[in-house]
Design brief:
Elements lengths: L1 H29 L7 H67 L17 H19 L3 H14 L4 H13 L3 H14 L4 H13 L3 H14 L4 H13 L3 H14 L4 H14 L2 H14 L6 H10 L2
């Protein structure tokens, strides 16, 4: 029985001894630095090596990135230059197309004669004549806006109809739309270069804008083509008076009175310009002719007095 208890007592004693040792060494165990353990140290070293290897790889990649950025910048710059050149080409192309479109614009008031026009059919010709006839009826009733529309309708059927342009230009003259009248008559003269009426009305449109030099050029062309109309020489004389060119005015008033010797209006202007230029012989002649055709003219006494003052 005693011998059976001895092993049990020895076991208890050993356990007590172990507990005493642990209790005595517990502060040292709690302060143990796990980093000092060999396996832990190896793991830490391995971690540091991997970290250094990572940063070296990043640094190496940075160098290559810096080296590669040069060509990339060059490529980008070249791309920008190509893009700018492309935009410039597009802009140039757009401006060229815009100019071509503007040059090819065709309107009723300003029609280009560069493209061939097919001959109008019999039906179209009938319609054109109808529109022109309606336009004349409106003009007779002084319905100028309606006449304008009729001429435009006829031009839609035949964009080179001389009569339609001539009528439309005259309507614009009567409406005092001188800029449009000038455009119409200029184009009409491309269709009919020897149309003296178009030159005459072009001169009238210029006169409406007080562009006397241009009016003189147009009217001189009209009398060059047709020198049988006194009114045109009379109008030329008045234009030269406006430009203070009395000698030229005298020459044209003379032509007007030669064509229509009994016209008191022409003789009146001839007498006036003869006195201004100091040509007494011509003044006396004009006075006698005026007195013969218009003896009741109230300006005759004043003319007589001015002639006597010429000496």
């Amino acid at each position: 029985m005693f011998f059976n208890i001895i092993p049990f007592v020895l076991i208890i004693a050993c356990l007590v001894g172990v507990m005493v040792i642990v209790v005595r060494k517990f502060p040292q165990l709690t302060s143990l630095d796990v980093g000092t353990l060999p396996k832990v140290q190896q793991a830490e070293v391995k971690k540091q090596l991997e970290l250094k290897r990572f940063w070296r790889a990043m640094a190496h990649a940075g160098v290559w990135l810096k080296i590669a950025s040069g060509p990339v910048k060059v490529v980008c710059k070249a791309g920008q230059n190509r893009f700018r050149a492309y935009v410039a080409r597009l802009q140039e192309k757009y401006e060229k197309v815009a100019e071509e479109v503007e040059a090819k614009k065709v309107s009723v008031k300003s029609v280009s004669n560069s493209a061939p026009v097919a001959p109008a059919s019999a039906v179209a010709l009938g319609k054109i004549e109808e529109w022109l006839s309606r336009a004349e009826e409106h003009i007779d009733r002084n319905e100028l806006k309606e006449a304008e529309q009729c001429f435009i309708e006829s031009l839609k059927l035949d964009e080179k109809n001389v009569e339609a342009y001539r009528g439309l230009g005259k309507v614009y003259l009567d409406l005092e739309r001188y800029k449009e009248a000038i455009a119409i008559f200029k184009f009409l003269l491309k269709l009919a270069p020897q149309d003296d009426r178009a030159f005459n009305r072009l001169a009238m449109a210029y006169m409406g804008q007080n562009k006397y030099e241009d009016a003189v050029k147009a009217l001189e062309k009209a009398v060059e083509i047709n020198d049988g109309l006194a009114i045109r020489f009379f109008d030329l004389g008045r234009l030269y008076q406006e430009l203070e060119r009395p000698a030229a005015a005298l020459r044209n008033f003379q032509k007007a009175s030669d064509i229509e010797p009994g016209n008191p209006k022409y003789l009146d202007q001839l007498l006036e310009i003869s006195i201004i230029t100091g040509d007494r012989r011509l003044a006396e002649e004009a006075y006698e002719r005026l007195e013969a055709v218009n003896p009741d003219n109230q300006k005759l006494p004043a003319f007589r007095e001015r002639i006597e003052e010429m000496g």
